[in-house]
Design brief:
Blueprint: H1 3-15, H2 23-36, E1 46-51, H3 53-56, H4 60-63, E2 68-73, H5 79-84, H6 86-89, E3 96-100, H7 103-107, H8 112-129, E4 134-138, H9 154-170, E5 174-176, H10 179-182, H11 202-212
Parallel strand pairs: 1-2, 1-3, 3-4, 4-5
Length: 230
């Protein structure tokens, strides 16, 4: 358990049952908390990235030093697979859970409505399993047809993303639209950001990181409760 996690749990458990806390009591709690945290402690937030091969290929730990970063991406995974792996991904509970999935489902011909229903189940389960975790739904990325000939229709991807944006509002999650940073005017994955028309190269991951960076404060500053970014 990280020191900041201990402090949060300790204070919540101690203060929750109290209606009025005398000033002396508050001072005692603060002093006790300071004594329990080792000197020189570096505060770290726990970040989990759950998804398919697009997530798996990201150098997330290198992008966010000082944080506890878990790359729970699995090549070839579907939204159903993400649901199956959700519980271990949330143990111990992260501060931020980044979700990215759906392209393999659509590539297999699964209807948008079915993919969306599974995604909604994923987000709902995450909220129940880890009520203190901030869930971040990242838009599903399209593929590149023109230069790589990938045979996946991007129109269903667009349709799924519209629904995911509304899903985020419904479950008080955060929706981050990655398309402005990674796609072309005709809604394809930019050719210079991929090596095969589906997966990203380092430049592509760098742009992805820039889109989610405002959500992740420097270690020790805490996770923002609300984010009004891209």
């Amino acid at each position: 358990m990280t020191p900041n996690r201990f402090v949060k749990i300790f204070l919540a458990a101690t203060l929750r049952p109290l209606v009025f806390v005398p000033p002396a009591g508050l001072l005692f709690l603060v002093l006790l908390t300071v004594l329990l945290v080792p000197a020189g402690t570096t505060w770290a937030e726990r970040l989990v990235f759950l998804g398919d091969s697009l997530t798996s290929g990201g150098p997330w730990a290198g992008y966010f030093p000082g944080h506890q970063v878990v790359n729970a991406g699995r090549p070839g995974d579907t939204v159903d697979g993400m649901i199956e792996r959700l519980e271990p991904a949330l143990s111990p509970r992260p501060d931020l859970l980044f979700l990215m999935g759906g392209i393999n489902d659509l590539g297999q011909g699964t209807p948008i409505a079915v993919v969306f229903s599974r995604y909604a189940d994923l987000v709902r389960r995450a909220g129940k399993m880890a009520p203190g975790t901030r869930v971040v739904i990242q838009s599903t990325l399209p593929v590149n047809h023109d230069e790589y000939g990938v045979r996946i229709d991007n129109r269903p991807v667009l349709g799924l993303n519209r629904r995911l944006a509304r899903l985020a509002i419904r479950y008080q999650a955060q929706y981050v639209d990655l398309w402005p940073a990674l796609t072309t005017a005709d809604d394809q994955l930019a050719a210079q950001l991929t090596h095969d028309g589906i997966h990203l190269n380092l430049e592509g991951y760098g742009r992805w990181r820039e889109r989610i960076q405002p959500l992740i404060p420097p270690p020790g500053e805490g996770i923002p409760m609300e984010y009004r970014g891209p």
